[in-house]
Amino acid sequence: MDDNSEQRDKAGAGGPDFLDLELSKVLLSEAESITREAFRELLKDAAKARFQARYGQQIEALANLAVDELLADMTTNLAIEQQIAEREATRKDLEQKLRDCLNPGGQADSED
Fold first, then answer.
1. What is the Cα 16 distance to its own chain's centre?
2. 42, pLDDT greater than 90
């Protein structure tokens, strides 16, 4: 008997551990996982529908308030960023302006 037939015989009689997971078991496990996920999604949808039915207007008002506040903060932050960028642009030539102030005729400092 060759090595392959011995391995097949062992596999048929309980065989190595790696053969315990047959394809059908893997597929069943995957199907069970998907069904659990699908059930959770159905529960989530039902909960969302119940919230909407009982508190729809309040939830919408709360969401609108939260969005409006976020947008106000974003607008303010963007305006501040723009002011900072403008200030940085004005300061960009500061070193040259400083040299011009300290050396008014453009002459180099002479050593005594």
1. 43
2. yes
